[in-house]
Design brief:
Strands 1, 2, 7, 8, 9, 10, 18 and 19 form an eight-stranded mixed sheet that branches. The longest helix is centred in the last third of the chain and has 28 residues, at 351-378. The protein is 30% helix and 24% strand. It is of the alpha+beta class and 546 residues long. The chain has helices spanning 15-26, 51-59, 63-68, 98-107, 123-136, 187-192, 269-277, 324-343, 351-378, 391-412, 415-419, 485-493, 505-508, 536-543, and strands at residues 2-11, 31-35, 48-49, 79-82, 89-93, 119-120, 140-144, 146-153, 158-164, 170-180, 196-199, 209-218, 232-236, 241-246, 252-258, 283-293, 296-299, 303-304, 307-309, 315-317, 473-477, 498-502, 516-519, 525-529. The chain has three domains: 2-70 and 121-200 and 296-370, 3-Layer(bba) Sandwich (FAD/NAD(P)-binding domain); 71-117 and 209-293 and 383-401, D-Amino Acid Oxidase, Chain A, domain 2; 423-543, Glutaredoxin (3-Layer(aba) Sandwich). The chain is built from 14 helices and 24 strands. The two termini are 39 Å apart. Bound molecules: flavin-adenine dinucleotide. Flavin-adenine dinucleotide is lined by residues 11-17, 34-37, 45-48, 123, 147-148, 181-183, 187, 213, 256, 291, 311-312, 319, 322-326, 328.
């Protein structure tokens, strides 16, 4: 039987597993990724890539390609709430096109204080770009069409059995570490004996219970949509609740419909599309799947020793707020550098457990936000008057429209949730005397307080501060007269990678108030101060989890 050795084995080549592989390679670590399906996802699930994920993709060198693959450059990313597509528009949240979002980000007028604004791009396109990038990468061994069958964790390695789905060929893979990026049904999580906790399949009028996801193509131009173009159309009527999303801004859509039961035989996809439209529609069904919304689940542990979980294998949310995949991508970035430190011999014995300390509280936080949005949009009844032309219908639409306009802002403009992620109880972060800002979903306060995401600043030459952050730690110095040679030499001696970056005080002092800021490999501030830590070795031991 063929035996292969690698540093990190990743089970699952969805968006999170692929991001982990790319980040590991950026850290110089060789990995192997197995994915049961032969191809990347053919179902457009996630379509909202948030600003933080886009920042990570920028550092991985793929953000421009991903942005090109999103909705057409001038297509509005509005969210419209309608009774039917040919019925009444109840409310609309105007949101910028791809081009306008980038302009807003450059001139600082958008709601997200970052280099990469949120982006609307189907998971189909995203995964394909990440997959191609992994295939091009000499440090990543990509095995699609292979399933992880079993694994055994030993003192110094993990031994896994992998099988090729179509030929039955078996391989033994020996790795220093195994990561389960294998989705909600994670075999890795189950083998570890780790359960999900929380609530599953909460029933609601929308985004809770049985749902159908119908991916379809229209045979003619969608001029039948009697409303102006939007990215999402929420259909809110007394007998039908659904969400229609444009996939390519032209002729492809995905319709997520709330159905009584998910028995495939009893469901007619064309009928669902016609109900959403309010008239008979002919379309080519590309793919139709049943799924269950209303999960608010999180693994009781994110792993141990040599085996860890990321993405949906660690948490499963209802898609409201677009937090599932994005939270997983942030998990992957946090875990990758810690695995790299272990593989390269400079990580301490507590470093990997800090992954769970950092990320599980964020999983719980984002799970609660996703659930609250689902409750807001999914837990009200709609009277049949909503489609009535008479005054009572008008009043019904006015009241519901007001509620939906407010809901739209609360679900889709969430800079605090996306950029305000901070690691408060991390053992490897060195706190200072300052108090945290309130964790407000809508108000992001840029701060270099340890644990926070290093705030974004545009620098001269058009680069963003995050473009200066290296794969290891980055020491930002605002006073070039302060000597750092001994500090950097001590770090280098024990293998802790620290890059020195000198920046102009005037350019960044609004958010970087100290003369030194040490940013971790994941872009979160590890420490800041006006003088370097007194006991260098103790300090370095702390940040490497020793
Ligand atoms: C309708 C819908 C809309 C959504 N919208 C959004 C959104 O806008 N934004 C957002 O952030 N999230 C969204 N999500 C959630 C998002 O799709 C998931 O969070 C995301 O796919 C999780 O990525 P993952 O890589 O962790 O897992 P997955 O995408 O599930 O990938 C896991 C991979 O592992 C493979 N695998 C499983 N077992 C094995 C094995 N034993 N061996 C080898 N391979 C294996 C599978 O084949 C699969 O390819 C949405 C979800 C749905 C259903």
């Amino acid at each position: 039987m063929l035996e292969v050795k690698t540093k990190v084995l990743i089970s699952g080549g969805g968006p999170v597993g692929l991001t982990l592989a790319l980040e590991l390679s950026r850290q110089g670590v060789e990995c192997l990724i197995v994915n049961e399906q032969e191809t990347t996802s053919i179902h457009p699930k996630a379509n909202a890539i948030n600003a933080r994920s886009m920042e990570h993709f920028r550092r991985l060198g793929v953000s421009s390609e991903i942005r090109e693959a999103g909705l057409p450059e001038n297509y509005p990313t509005d969210v419209a709430y309608v009774t039917r597509l040919t019925g009444y528009e109840l409310a609309r949240l105007s949101m910028p096109s791809r081009v306008s979002a980038l302009e807003e980000s450059k001139d600082g007028t958008g709601p997200y204080d970052c280099a990469e604004p949120p982006h609307r791009c189907s998971q189909i396109y995203l995964e394909s770009i990440l997959h191609k990038s992994a295939l091009r990468n000499r440090l990543i061994n990509v095995l699609f069409g292979y399933r992880l069958e079993s694994f055994k964790e030993l003192e110094n390695e993990v031994i896994a059995n992998v099988v090729h789905i179509s030929t039955g060929e078996c391989r033994i893979i020996k790795a220093d570490y195994l990561v389960g990026a294998d989705g909600g049904r994670s075999m890795v999580r189950r083998e570890l004996g780790i359960r999900y906790e929380g609530e599953a399949g909460i029933e609601r009028q929308m985004m809770g219970g049985s749902m159908m996801a119908t991916y379809f193509r229209l045979s003619r131009d969608p001029s039948w949509l009697e409303i102006s173009p939007a990215w999402q159309y929420w259909i809110v009527s007394s007998d039908f609740r659904a969400l229609l999303m444009t996939v390519n801004g032209k002729d492809e859509f995905v319709l997520l419909s709330r159905v009584e039961n998910s028995n495939r035989e009893s469901i007619d996809d064309l009928e669902l599309i016609s109900r959403a439209a309010g008239c008979s529609i002919n379309a080519e069904i590309i793919l139709s799947q049943s799924w269950t919304a209303g999960h608010a689940l999180i693994a009781e542990s994110y792993g141990r020793r040599r085996v860890w979980l990321v993405g949906d294998s660690a948490h499963l949310f209802t898609p409201t707020g677009g937090l599932g995949m994005n939270t997983g991508i942030d998990d992957a970035i946090n875990l990758a550098w810690k695995l790299s430190a272990m593989v390269n011999g400079w990580g301490g014995q507590n470093l990997l457990s800090s992954y769970e300390e950092d990320r599980r509280p964020i999983g719980l936080r984002n799970l609660a936000f996703a659930k609250s949005f689902a409750e807001s949009i999914g837990s009200f009844d709609v009277s049949s008057n909503i489609e009535n032309m008479k005054p009572e219908g008008h009043e019904e639409r006015r009241v519901l429209g007001k509620f939906l306009a407010d809901h739209g802002k609360r679900e889709f403009i969430i800079p605090g949730i996306v950029l305000g992620v901070r690691y408060e109880n991390s053992e490897i972060i060195c706190p200072d005397e300052t108090l945290p800002f309130k964790d407000d979903p809508y108000d992001y306060v840029p701060t270099s307080r340890p644990g926070s995401r290093a705030p974004h600043v545009w620098l001269s030459g058009g680069l963003a501060l995050c473009d200066y952050l290296g794969p290891g730690f980055t020491l930002i110095r605002l006073n070039q007269y302060k000597d750092v040679d001994d500090f950097l030499a001590a770090a280098s001696e024990i293998g802790v990678p620290i890059t020195l970056v000198d920046l102009e005080y005037d350019e960044i002092c609004e958010f970087y108030e100290r003369e030194f800021t040490l940013v971790g490999p994941d872009g979160h501030v590890t420490w800041r101060g006006d003088v370097l830590p007194q006991n260098t070795n103790n300090f370095l031991d702390r940040i490497r989890g020793m």
